[in-house]
Structure prediction request, 151 residues.
Amino acid sequence: MRGEICWRRAGVAAGLGFYGKNGLLITGEFGPLVRLGGVLTNFPLEKQVAADVALESKCEACTICLDSCPAGALEPYKIDKKKCGNRVFTYGLRGFSAFLEEVITADEAGRQEALRGPALRELWQNFMTGGYYYCWACQTSCPWGKPGNPA
Ligand code: B12
Ligand code: SF4
Ligand code: SF4
Prediction:
């Protein structure tokens, strides 16, 4: 649950946007609806600091993302990783293990019910797409990610 390099912090330092109460990098164009990546290099680049680095949050009095989190994992600029993880990994590895355990330990009727239930379909979809996150509320609720955003 810990990355070697924090891309959100790197994104803010690169002048891509500001740090939101949802703990995400918020860009002017797409709000928090961005995925971040980086390139590591040993090329001798000159250190630069973007002129308009927005270290100041622009969330102001808004609390939409905090109120939208179904896991109650968010406080301003602070996330309970465990609570969030339990939600986003509903159909990740731990969801898969739980499903297998249910199928193995249930009686015949329970097994049939599990095999016809929604969990197997969710898991199948995740295996096919490779995308196993199960929550995006703190990203999709933010007004900065909607048309006519405050930028
Ligand atoms: C581990 C991880 C998780 C864990 C823990 C989440 C967390 N917030 O740490 C879990 C599984 C819970 C998770 C959930 C989600 N994640 Co995630 N996650 C990561 C990952 C792989 C590493 C994060 C990390 O450990 N950073 C390093 C440690 C040291 O950071 P830290 O302990 O949080 O402390 C830092 C912050 O608090 C920050 N900070 C604190 N105050 C301030 C103030 C300012 C001004 C700044 C700039 C920074 C800052 O600085 C600290 C040190 O760097 C990153 C990818 C990456 N390598 O950055 C993606 C990443 C953060 N996740 C992302 C996303 C989108 C999500 C989810 C929405 C799930 C989903 N559906 O995709 C949720 C959102 C949860 C949330 N609101 O934060 C995106 C964020 C994109 C963005 N717009 O910012 C990233 C960058 C992945 C990506 N490739 O784009 N994630
Ligand atoms: S991804 Fe979902 S559970 Fe995690 S912090 Fe965002 S809204 Fe909450
Ligand atoms: S929803 Fe509101 S409080 Fe949350 S990150 Fe977006 S602007 Fe900030």
